[in-house]
Amino acid sequence: MDTLTLKAPEGALSSLKRWFPSHASTWGILLLCLLLSVPVLTVLSSVTASSEGVWQHLYETVLGDYVTHSVTLMVGVGLIVLVLGIGPAWLVTMTQFPGSRTLEWALVLPLAMPAYIIAYTYTGLLDVGGPVQAWIRETFSLRFGQYWFPSIRSLGGAITMLSLVLYPYVYLLSRTAFIEQSVCVLEVSRTLGATPFQAFRRVAIPLARPAIIAGLSLVLMETLADYGTVQYFGVSVFTTGVFRTWFGLGSSTAAAQLAAVLLLFILFLVLAEHWSRQKARYHHTSNKYTRLPRIELRGWKKWAAVVYCSVPVLFGFLIPFLQLLKWSTETWHLLDRDGFLTMFGNSLQLASITAVIALLLGLFISYTKRLRPSLSLRGMVRVLGLGYAIPGTVVAIGVLIPFTWFDNALDAWMRRNFDISTGLLLSGTLVAVVFAYLVRFLPVALNTLDAGLGKIKPTMDDVGRSMGLRPLQILRRVHVPVMRGSLLTASLLVFVDVLKELPATLILRPFNFNTLAIRTYELANQERLAEASSTALMIVLAGIIPVIILSQTISRSRPGYDSRT
Amino acid sequence: MFKKLSLSLLVLCGTAAQADEVNIYSAREENLIKPILDIYSERTGVTINLVTGGADELTQRLELEGANSPADLLLTVDVGRLYRAKEAGLLQSVTSEVLSSVIPAQYRDTDGEWFGVSVRSRVVIYDKASVSPDDLSTYADLADPKWAGKICVRSSSNIYNQSLVASMIGHNGVEATQAWATGFAANFGRPPQGGDRDQISAVAIGQCQLAISNTYYLAGMLQSPDAAERETAESVAVFFPDQQGNGAHVNVSGAAVTKAAKNRDAAVKLIEFLVSEEAQAWYAETNNEYPVRADVPASALLQSWGTFKADDIALDALGIHNAEAVRVMDRAGWQ
Questions:
Q1: 3-state SS string over B198-255?
Q2: Closest Cβ–Cβ partner in B1, B10, B193 for A429
Q3: What are the boundaries of each domain within chain B?
Q4: How far is A339 from A325, CA to CA, in rounded Å?
Q5: By CA distance, what is B60's nearest residue in A?
Q6: What is the ipTM of this complex?
Q7: Measured between CA atoms, how close is B221 to chain A, in angstroms?
Q8: For B121-249+310-332, CATH number?
Q9: Contact B149, B189 (CB under 8 A)
Q10: What is the Cα–Cα distance from A420 to A406, expressed in whole angstroms?
């Protein structure tokens, strides 16, 4: 069975190969992947260069901190997102309790909240000078130091902030997996005497493992690439180390090597997971799907479920959202309204363009991988996937290097041969910006699309063929309906990610081009948190709608879901 | 598809070369620079195109773009970065009667490659209730164990801290500065975090008794739209260190014409405008920075803190010793 799937994954779709006429398309894809991997490859290729003693200095002073802090951050965020993501996903899918239908989509909302913004907001609330501690001091007439309060700007604070906005990845993917699980397996486990919790622990979670791991790896990559939050909190990790080494110590080589170490570590994690999964393959054992019977929770279990599922929404979305709202009503009069609308438009425009391109490229790559699988392509896609773990600034410089090289080379050639100067054609335009987004976020789209395509077993194509459908009809009548959810999810995730993106936009953008994220950052960087809140709020609001659509899509993603009911 | 899109994007964002324009890469945030640029545009009809961002990143972009870079002018908020851009060969020498007569020699490059346009001092902020200014004297004194657990300062990744330590290396050498930094870091009341305003708040609340901050941050808090923030700022005061010695550490925000500049003359004119009496008064009033020219008074608020002796070290030193300063702070355990 396994060898069969490996050898003929294309099934009857092989006739679609005429769309991919020769090896030309494979080469085309390889070239495209190579292009998009340039930033990753630039970073990785630095490993062999000499850094003139900078490593010696790092090793003697701060490297230990970078390693322990980064690892603690990863482990901490990893554990919390699992707790915040999987449990609620299971509860809202399988059980019924007060508010469960609302929480189903509300649990995704923190995805619209950029990590740096939630960090600013909680700092404003919880820092020594903030209203919460001021209230404690006034109410109990205490002075600072006479009471204990956790420091928000700390490693623990960074773990909390990142977990609160990143857990939706695990929630979304594990929920999709739970929804898609054949109810038969669960019923069998129940008839064998398993309690609902045992069924969850011993059947549902192992079956959902690939999805959970996929979500977790997105979270961990985003965590390692985060710069805004850790920098603001003064936590020294690999990303802050990269910039300090690069600009402070003036060694771009050692900085790139630090980033490379980070990438190799991630690559190792990805491969380790892959190998460990190969031993145990999880397949859907039955295709019989019925409407999921939701268990109605009673008594303390009901209220425990309410609390468990509300906590992530409350702290990851509601509290920071209300604080932003309060600040922005206080500072609304300071807002430059014309600029505000332009920025809003720019943000939406960039996010939509990138989402569409990422979707098309992702589809193209996924289908090529399916129809013309090759080791080189699989390897290339792996490398491409690391883009998500590279800090935005590093990606931006990684994009500038090839773009400016191309522009300058073309300019020189044109001058030599035609005495025309073409100047900079690509760098300093939105093309460079969108390209950088693709480097960072195409992996997200690819992951989602691959998972969607994986649901279409080759046998489904065969059945279509045997029923007399032509290849294009198979695409339209089999693939499109099954893939619809994945297509939407892929584009929406990219859309929301672009909306939140800051560092690459900042460096690569053309003249006079602002986005909401840039304005928010610039004001917050001047420590004017309250004034930064209006644009921050707009980012969140612009992200909410796609996020809700996303959640609805997943509810409907169950095979056999009938939208008329 | 991608090609088509790229082409249409190109058309959308290609900046057509026009007669009178200046293209600026600015490390000063848009809301702090655009108003004064708008005034200039309106008056002269010169089109100004602006990209803001981190100085290091913008310098990197300038370097990679090479001779074809559209940027005419680089604005930074510290001299270390100007020095770095000069070293990387990204700037060009400018001779301007106006600039050399108006800007004191200390605040411009000897080769005319960069010009300071505003001045700020990095000072000690102390809690009025628990600290008497008589207890304060020099930066060196802050390493004294009597301040153990009482000092708040932001991360050593911050360029202003790097510049401060670089100036000390310039004055006293690496060894003495290392000893100072180690003692200083041992006096921290909490791990470095947040920005300068956060350090001031921490002093006001009593977490620390002293903070290191640039002058305009306290000024900004004193004029904040938020009443609570004003109250916080009222409870602390400014101390200018080293008044009997080298003087208080100062840094400049500055402007430089890029080597690739296509609109060189227009760029020079713009710098001349930035140091005009009018623009200097605007800097002083709006951003609470010290004017670079002596004939424009500081804002009333800054004047209320009194005059001070500024360190007259050649500002190049802040750039020259930057990397060494980072190493010193790494070794001192200053996060």
A1: HHHHHHHHCCCCEEEEEHHHHHHHHCCCCHHHHHHHHCEEEECCCCCCCCEEEEEEEE
A2: B10
A3: 14-119+251-304, 121-249+310-332
A4: 20
A5: A397
A6: 0.84
A7: 10
A8: 3.40.190.10
A9: yes
A10: 16
Q: How far is B325 from chain A (nearest CA, A)?
A: 9
Structure token digits, residue B305: 């803190």
User: Min CA distance, B97 vs chain A (Å)?
Assistant: 30
Residue of A nearest to B229 (CA): A129
Q: Do B61 and A526 touch (CB under 8 A)?
A: no
* Whole-angstrom distance, CA of residue B331 vs CA of residue B310: 28
Bridge partners of B238?
Answer: B125
Q: Which of B66, B154, B226 is the closest to A404 by Cβ? A: B66
Q: Does the distance separating the beta carbons of A430 and B13 come in below 8 Å?
A: yes
Looking at the domain assignment, is residue A63 inside a domain?
A: no
Minimum-distance CB partner of B29 among A127, A360, A525 = A525
CATH of the domain at A510: 1.10.3720.10
Domain B14-119+251-304 -> CATH class: alpha beta
Mark which residues 40-59 of B lie under 8 Å from A by CB.
49-54, 56-58
Tokens of A398: 């990684």
Enumerate the residues of chain A whose CB falls inside 8 A of the CB of residue B322. Answer: 248, 250
CA atoms of B43 and A393, how far apart (whole Å): 37
Cβ–Cβ contacts within 10 Å for residue B220, how many? Answer: 21
Listed by number, the residues of chain B in 184-213 with a beta carbon closer than 8 Å to a beta carbon of chain A are: 190-198, 201-202, 204-207
**Chain A: nearest CA to B76, how far in angstroms?**
14
Nearest CB neighbour to A57, from listed B5, B217, B330: B330
Q: Reduced to 3 states, what is the DSSP secondary structure of residue A285? A: coil
Classify residue A415: in a domain, yes or no: yes
C-alpha closest to that of A296 among A305, A308, A285, A309: A305
HEC-encoded secondary structure of A369-423: HHHCCCHHHHHHHHHHHHHHHCCHHHHHHHHHHHHHHHHHHHHHHHHHHHCCCCC
- How many other C-beta atoms lie within 10 A of the C-beta of residue A203? 18
Q: Do A522 and B207 touch (CB under 8 A)?
A: no
Chain A neighbours among B 220-259 (CB < 8 Å)? 220, 225-226, 228, 232
CA distances from A191 to A187, A287, A317, A391, B217 (A): 6, 19, 40, 49, 68
The domain in which residue A482 lies consists of 14-41+68-284+299-320+340-555
Q: Please report, in tens digits, the pLDDT of each residue of chain A (565 residues total).
A: 333 333 444 444 555 555 555 566 777 788 888 888 888 888 788 778 777 788 888 888 888 889 999 999 999 999 999 999 999 999 998 889 999 889 988 999 999 999 999 999 999 899 887 889 889 988 998 888 788 888 888 999 999 999 999 999 999 888 888 887 766 677 777 777 777 777 777 778 888 888 888 889 889 989 998 988 998 888 999 888 888 888 888 888 888 888 888 888 888 887 887 777 665 555 554 555 555 677 888 888 899 999 999 999 999 999 999 999 999 998 888 777 778 889 999 999 999 999 999 999 998 888 888 777 778 888 888 888 888 888 888 888 888 888 898 999 999 999 999 988 888 888 889 999 999 999 999 988 988 888 778 777 777 777 887 888 877 788 788 788 878 778 888 888 899 999 999 889 988 999 999 999 999 988 888 878 888 899 999 999 988 888 888 777 777 765 545 444 3
B198:A129 CB<8 A: yes
Does A62 fall in a domain? no
The amino acid present at B236, given as its one-letter code, is V
The C-alpha of B159 sits at a distance from chain A's nearest C-alpha, in angstroms, of 8
